[in-house]
Amino acid sequence: QELRPKSLDIKQEELGDMVEKEMASTSEAIEDAVRRIEEMMSQARNESSGVKLEVNERILNSCTDLMKAIRLLVTTSTNLQKEIVESGRGAATTQEFYAKNSRWTEGLISASKAVGWGATQLVEAADRVVLHTGKYEELIVCSHEIAASTAQLVAASKVKAEKSSRNLARLQECSRNVNEMAANVVASTKSGQEQIEEKDTMDFSGMSLIKLKKEEMETQVKVLELEKRLEGERVRLGELRKQHYVLAGGCEDAPEDGEARPAPAPRRGILKKPPIAQKP
To answer: Which sequence ranges form a coiled-coil region, renumbered to this chain (predicted)?
Structure first.
């Protein structure tokens, strides 16, 4: 018992209250995100027009659909969690059930936090895009993070749920809907970015030969600089993911119920894609 990792300095009898608090906090964050998106929509209609207004509306509408899907996911997850507790606690109290299954409870709390955080980050990224102070790529990354957080929440809920549970089936359906809405955000962001870039394309028709040559050389320099920077960022991303894997593996593989589980040793080549089998 002494060797088990501490629950983020939270007493086990407080875990039950923590779950309800985090679920409520996640729901509140999503409701706030929906309100902020509506405000951004109104602001965009007042301050932009033409192609930019069309792009902003399309992106914000897709973000609204995603937030609604996440809100339904959290509600369904809460119902499933209550069902799991009621069916599994027996004569024990709810607090005792959470304390007895502390590792599962911590996973549920972590997943709920991840979903709420992802929703908040998405709205902030959308706000910056509408104000032309952010990058479209931020929205795409946030959408991927929300899809990953959703999978984490479903996995945490599925561990102790009955296979025949209707709430589990609803949760899995909500998860697929969230993934679909996140894909719509990515698609609308990419198409909007292409529209804006096409509109802002530089006209070279009025340039002299010398000016064109100078612009060409400067662009070649930028291409080389960006290629070098891209390679460096890829190496950095690989190291970050490796460290994330080490930390996550250390938490998830911690001993539970007296069973020792050795954490998998990370290897340098773990990020490489497996070779694709060639057709004969």
So the answer is: 207-243
pLDDT digits (tens, 9 = 90+) for 38-55: 888 888 788 777 778 888
Domain membership of residue 3 (yes or no) is no
| Three-state secondary structure string covering 105-119 | HHHHHHHHHHHHHHH
Q: Considering only residues 267 and 74, tell me which one the structure prediction assigns the higher pLDDT.
A: 74
Residue 85 lies in a domain: yes
Does the predicted TM-score (pTM) go above 0.85?
no
Cα–Cα distance, 41 to 53 (Å, whole number): 9
In a domain, residue 201? The reply is no
How far out from the chain centre does Cα 13 lie?
Answer: 30
- Burial track 34-46 (b if 16+ CB lie within 10 A, e otherwise): bebbeebbeebee
Which residue has tokens 């593989």?
253
Overall number of domains in the chain: 1
Q: What are phi and psi of 259, to 5 degrees?
A: -95, 130
pLDDT band at 11 (very low <50, low <70, confident <90, very high): low
**CATH code for the domain in which residue 154 is found:** 1.20.1410.10
Domain of 155 in residue numbering reads as: 14-196
pLDDT of residue 226: 94
Judged by DSSP in three states, 92 sits in coil
Whether 108 contacts 157, CB under 8 Å: yes
Residue 239 CA to residue 233 CA, distance in Å, equals 10
In the numeric block, the tokens 């991303």 are attached to 237
Structure-model confidence comparison of residues 227 and 200, the more confident one: 227
Q: Is residue 254 part of a domain?
A: no
Q: How many residues are there in the chain?
A: 280
